[in-house]
Structure formats: structure tokens, C-alpha cells
User: Fold this.
Amino acid sequence: MKYSFLLISVIILASCSKVKKEYFPSGDIKSEIEYKGDQKNGEALYYYNNGNINIRCRYEKDMLHGLYEKFYPDGTKMEATNYNNGMKEGSSIQYYENGKVATTMNFKNDIPDGEYKEYFENGQIKIHGFYSNGFYHGDWEYFDFNGLKVGFAHFENGSGEQTAYYYGSSKKKVVVEFAENIKNGRETYYTKEGEVSKIIYYSNGEIEKVVRDPEENQ
Assistant:
């Protein structure tokens, strides 16, 4: 009786959970996905036609849940992002083809929140800043390929000013006003002597007017 009960249990479990496979026209495996009923539930593997893994992830009730990994065709990791019930939650890392980190950031309920870092392919930091509920927030710093600081910004919930410097100096070259993460207001260009040479006016990211000689328009 115990053997019969165990056999029945195994059959029931097998009928509830199954792996669906798809193939390329060549006959090579394209995907292997665990299902429970008609919903994706469990591990999923997607392949390139060269046999290497394209995406490795997990689903719960048809929604991404847990670690999502994507790879380049040669097998090098491209992305590692955590999901919770279909939404990005926690760490997300993007990689260059050479294996070095391209960006690191965090999400909360699918919205950027927390520290953000972007790198050049040589590993040098390119951008460092913070998000708060999807908005640029706090200090942001911008660097060139060799580590020289080329810009700075300060935001409060997506509103603020972003400044680009003349190369190798602290003299401002361009100052841009932002609201809700987009250009809104003036984009002011300066000469090396500190004089205003041009102003572009933005409204919700769209150019409204360009003033090439501000002194003549005063």
C-alpha cells in the first residue's frame, strides 16, 4: 500500500509540473521552461543557436521571481538582476562583453532607488549618483576615461542643475536646469572667460527657444 501511495503521489506531481521545450529549425534546443498547469513556474533556460545560454531565470505564476541572468553569445554574463513577483527588486548589474561591470544600480518595486554607478570599459568610474523613487537625487558626479572629473550635478527629487566643466579645469562650460529628470528651463553655455555665449530654453524636454547672443536679447 505504501508503494502504491508513493507511486500515485509521483504521478500527481508529474502531472502538475512539467518542462516544455522548444527547438530551433536546426533541431538545437531553444528553451526549457518549467510549467505548473498553464503557467511558467520554476526554472527557465533560453539558448542561443550556438548552444550557449542566452537567459537563465525563474518564474512564479508566470512572473519573473528571483535572479534573472542574461549572457552574451560567447557565454560572458551581460546582466544579473533580482526580481520579486515580476518587478525588479534590489541589485541590478550590467556587464561589458569583456566581463567588466558597466552599471550597478538598485530597484524598489521596479523603480530605480539608491546608488547608481556607471563605468567605462577600462573599469574607471564614469557616473556616480543616487536615485530616490525613480528621481535623480543628491549629488551626481561625472568623469572621463582617465578619471578626471568633468561634471557635477545636485538634484532634489529630479529637479536641479547639472554642470559640465571645461576639460582640465573647474570652469563651467554648460549649466542645465532639470525638473522631474528632464531638461526644463535654461541650458546655458559659457566661454572660457565666464561669459554667457548661448542659452537654450527647454520645456518638458523640448526646445522652446535658442538665444545665440544673450546680451542682444536683454
